[in-house]
Specification:
The protein is of the alpha+beta class. Helices cover 36% and strands 11% of the residues. The protein is built from 8 helices and 7 strands; from the N terminus they run ββαβββββααααααα. It has helices spanning 33-46, 117-124, 146-156, 163-167, 174-185, 194-207, 218-222, 230-252; strands at 3-9, 18-24, 69-70, 73-74, 95-99, 108-110, 113-114. It has a 5-stranded mixed beta sheet with strand order 2-1-5-3-4. It has a two-stranded antiparallel sheet with strand order 6-7. A hairpin with a 2-residue loop joins strand 3 and strand 4 (73-74). The longest helix has 23 residues, at 230-252. It is elongated, with a radius of gyration of 21 Å. The termini are far apart.
Length: 254
Amino acid sequence: MRLTLRVWRQKNANSPGAMATYDLDDISTDMSFLEMLDTLNEELTLRGEEPVAFDHDCREGICGACSLVINGDAHGPERTTACQLHMRSFRDGDTIDVEPWRASAFPVVKDLVVDRSAFDRIIQAGGYVSVPTGAAPEAHATPVPKPDADFAFEHAECIGCGACVAACPNGSAMLFTSAKINHLNVLPQGAPERETRVLDMVGQMDAEGFGGCTLTGECATACPKGIPLTSIAAMNKEWLRATRKARKARKAGR
């Protein structure tokens, strides 16, 4: 395949960025998108030019590191991660635009690399179980109803890639935050911190500067792991429940 790439180049967070055009020949349709970028970087290095910086890690679609907007779509034209997107999804002679996630809470570090530490701080605010549990318990010691287990597993599939934020016209992180809240709140191990978890994590999400959710649904459409839009409604229900409980507690303490 012969391709024309238009890639966002930005020296650092304080420098202006612009699209740079590169031509590539002999790209195999069996290559992954990241392998194609590796080929580009090899050519740039041989020419003495600065290679394109982009995030990657496992290249197996499970770590969420590969954050790219490809032709205007988070992760590209297929519902998968950029590392699992193959060049057979494109045609010979195509022009492909490659950009970083676009969100104020995800500032560009360099080229296609963005700072997603805002997600880490949301997790640190309550996305864990802090109750000491000791050694691993017997598998069936704490029965979990099948619907609750399925719900938890569905939301635990979130890999924190940030595609939901990049796809949202408002730059909202509601789908990510709801997935991390819901998969813990529905399980017995997460019950003791159920109220504080949702209040603290939503509060941190707002503090990070993510946009508000207007339920456009683009987040769920772009999610490579299929986190459903109903996850946001479930989180809102948890937040209202926790808010009412906290309000009652404050009144009782007066």
